[in-house]
TrEMBL record:
Pfam families: RNase_H (PF00075). HAMAP family: RNase_H. It comes from Mycolicibacterium poriferae. This is Ribonuclease H. Its cofactor is Mg(2+). Its EC number is 3.1.26.4. Mg(2+) 2 binds at D15, D140. SUPFAM superfamilies: Ribonuclease H-like (SSF53098).
Length: 158
């Protein structure tokens, strides 16, 4: 039976956060393609930010893909979605400064996310956090696990 284009889509849900912000953080991602599911997570035991963890999750998910594919990427972070779909090309064109002439925060991660996206055809979607979307809730739980393991000194990407 031939596979359809829809079968080749990888659906990714990501989340990240810190407690407190700034502070130790964690990130999580759920990748689904057909009946295959992969869960990834990790954390940072030293001071980081919610935004850095929200950016790290899609980077790690996209970098985990072994070949170029169509990706539907869901995030509950408007910062990440707007940054990658609306702002990043302008920042890059302007030498990584904002419209108000301030240095772009997290430029290292924005550049890494751009590179990760370049390998794939990524469509970005925003989903309301903590609204009962199963894979978003799972990504949140994985981010919490990443934070907890980072604090325990045992954080290894899952």
């Amino acid at each position: 039976m031939p596979t359809s284009a829809a079968d080749d889509v990888v659906v990714i849900h990501t989340d990240g956060g810190c407690r407190p912000n700034p502070g130790p953080g964690g990130w999580g991602a759920v990748l689904r393609q057909r009946h295959h599911v992969r869960e990834l997570y990790g954390g940072e035991p030293t001071s980081t930010s919610n935004n850095r963890m929200e950016l790290t999750a899609p980077i790690m998910a996209l970098e985990a893909l072994t070949r170029p594919v169509v990706v539907h990427l869901y995030t509950d972070s408007t910062y990440v979605r707007n940054g990658i779909t609306k702002w990043v090309l302008g920042w890059q064109r302007n030498g990584w400064v904002t419209a108000s002439k301030q240095p772009v925060k997290n430029v290292d991660l924005w550049q890494r996310l751009q590179a990760a996206c370049a390998r794939h055809r990524v469509e970005w979607f925003w989903v309301k956090g903590h609204s009962g979307v199963d894979d978003n809730e799972l990504a949140d739980a994985l981010a919490t696990r990443g934070l907890r393991e980072a604090l325990d000194g045992s954080a290894v990407a899952g």
